[in-house]
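User: Please predict the structure of the protein below. I'd like the answer in structure-token form so I can feed it into my own downstream comparison script.

Assistant: Understood. Taking the following sequence of 182 residues as input:
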Amino acid sequence: MTSTTLHPSGPRGLRPKCLVAALAILLASGGVAEAQQVGTASGLPVPRYVSLKSDHVNLREGPSKEHRTLWIYQRAGLPVEITAEFETWRKIRDSEGTEGWVLHSLLSGRRTALVAPWKKDTFLQLRRSASDGAAVAANLQPSVLTNVKRCDDGWCHIFGDNYDGYIQETNLWGVYPDEKVD
């Protein structure tokens, strides 16, 4: 490993203007990629969406069974966002913004989503194909829990009991904007 000596004029005598120009060229060429954060325990991306595996999941105020239970989730399949990891514990956030810690074994990689839980007194149209002009396959109420089959180009293919179709990604809580889900 080589060492770099720092001088007032920059590393190894480079002038600050040269450093700025070099950095601008590097950024313009796409030479610097945005670093993706990964969990310290799993090595998977953080944050990321997962779902609850069980219909009884204790949300705790800290990463151990000694911490008090803040909430008990009673719906398997509910989407949650993992925001941190500590050993076998995952810090999660739900669609209402509630945060706490759960055991990783109570989480599933199965992708689910809630249909626009922030909208009230309206129906959201599920399309037969990924297009605003496509025929309507169903009208879904806000907060319907759905399975995510695929997302691409701003549309997600979702399904559940008695429905299957496409909805704009922006109408789901459980997928990131422009996220590709396979």
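That's the full token string. Residues 1-34 have pLDDT under 50 and may be disordered.
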